[in-house]
Task: structure prediction
Amino acid sequence: MKEIKASMAGTVLNVLVSEGENVSTGQAVLTLESMKMEIPIETTEEGEVGTVNVNVGDFVNEGDVLVVMK
Result:
């Protein structure tokens, strides 16, 4: 299983995928807001979303697991 982790600390602004959804390489799975900037978090490979570990409004730290791919 592949984990998609936060590249920096921030607040989850949007969750763009749901569990069971198929995603493509480079597709944004969610958006973080940090220092008034919107940072898209993208997949590095195609696959199926297994678990989304965050909700809109959650604060995450750098390295936190946001999404687990199957």
